[in-house]
Amino acid sequence: MPTTININAKDLNQEALNRKTGEKMVYVPLFNYETYSNQEGWKAKGM
To answer: What is the C-alpha separation between 26 and 30, in angstroms, rounded?
Structure first.
């Protein structure tokens, strides 16, 4: 029996949706951190 289990919640959600509906989950995040698309979030605070 393993002492640690690595569970990815996104993978569990995808599997659950697929089992229930037969559809694949399409996840698109609100902001893409790789493109710095959240300009308000990247501004320096208190300066």
So the answer is: 13
